[in-house]
């Protein structure tokens, strides 16, 4: 969500900041801004509504020079997207601030500061930080101490960077709830909300922890914990390539990432199935002991990750014989819940920074969960650091806001988790071998599925003038139908809903007419005859159907139904296999609709606010 970049260097930093913002733009993008301190200690700012390109253009027309600067792409929470609400916010022409997150007590702070004579220019919650730092500085001996005093008064979530033009050698940064990473250069140092922003300038990073405040200067970085005690935050070389943020030959990141799935899953599997057996250590130290004692699994996630968790529930109860619940993080964190004995809490998050999921993990520890595991794509992220065990999905950078490869690699991780837990709960050797075999067959199977792209593209035409769509599935394909509906609504803005097909007659059948396309996910499995009855219910009411099925399911195209022939695959991996055609369908429908596929309106990636 939204992006922060900051730099303290000898050279001019404007280009570094703007390039960093471009690389973060997928996280939030209603406006962008930059503030730079020049050699005469003057504060120079530029802000633009819209994409980072608008800001880049403004800086070509009126360049800002100087070696210390901060920049931001905003995803508005308080105050409409506008130039005046764009960050950085400035107090008294000296203090400039960028901020990710939400200051929950901003109203109280605003009235206090107004009482002290501060004039507010924006509607944002962020502006209170700016004036508060300016105010605290009056009774502090340094910017660092003023920021330390300021953050103690803030409630809510923030990753923030503060610059004082009178002190151009330092940036002060603070983290609580929104991630910040320090990048180490030679004679220059950087700060960003994601390493992706800084890959062109460094590979060496350290992550701030909750409550940390740090002072960043050209030759030195000092970090202090929430008690003001100096602490070390280990710097590590990042193992990602410079251009992992490039689209390559593809028109959109989402398409690239959809096509990357066979390779991404090969990476997820790589080295983890040794001689046909799962290497339990891949979940981290002590995993086998934890899995042995697990009697119940509670899964917590949001959005697409929630759908992968729903599939895992089917797997865990059927294959591993362990009871499992799943809940949306924003619900779980605000209710009193029962903790069954020997429960494992499993969180799922692409970024590892999802605010609600992180809060749920912290709550779970307080209320007595024995152990925790995260399924995550970003090493070193908050959820990884704060969980007992972690399974890294190794999907590679996912830039498209609509998740694709992060989802399918999560499913692979969750199936491996099912194997690891099942092994201790009576899963037979044959079953284990069967699952392993299915997993190994997956990348090649997905290559076959991707070959359906052009027939799915043809189908997308039918959706050009539609405003609604219904997705149906049963069993472990029900969450896949939900994921298909989410994808369609996210990027094509067509209202889409998913139902467990057995629920049709309890309400949604009333919606069926020629204007409501019905997408059915129908591999041949134990439920196929039940699903066929539901299909007939739709047909009898004049519905138009798009059925994704294998040849063994025996559907035939006719006036009321178009059948998309999906390659036959093992039941166990079918949820993963059937995800891809639905991703492609959404993609091509969005292309026809002419929407912004990679940056759909109102959305952002890596949801670090509540
Ligand atoms: N709450 C702040 C605003 O609305 C920051 C939003 C963001 O994280 O971009 O300006």
UniProtKB/TrEMBL annotation:
Keywords carried by this UniProt record: Aminotransferase, Cytoplasm, Glutamine amidotransferase, Repeat, Transferase
Subcellular location: Cytoplasm
Transmembrane segments: none
Active site: 2, 605
Catalysed conversion reaction: D-fructose 6-phosphate + L-glutamine = D-glucosamine 6-phosphate + L-glutamate
First and last residue of the signal peptide: none
Domain Glutamine amidotransferase type-2 residues, every copy: 2-219
Protein's name according to its UniProt entry: Glutamine--fructose-6-phosphate aminotransferase [isomerizing]
Phylogenetic placement of the source organism: Bacteria, Pseudomonadati, Pseudomonadota, Gammaproteobacteria, Alteromonadales
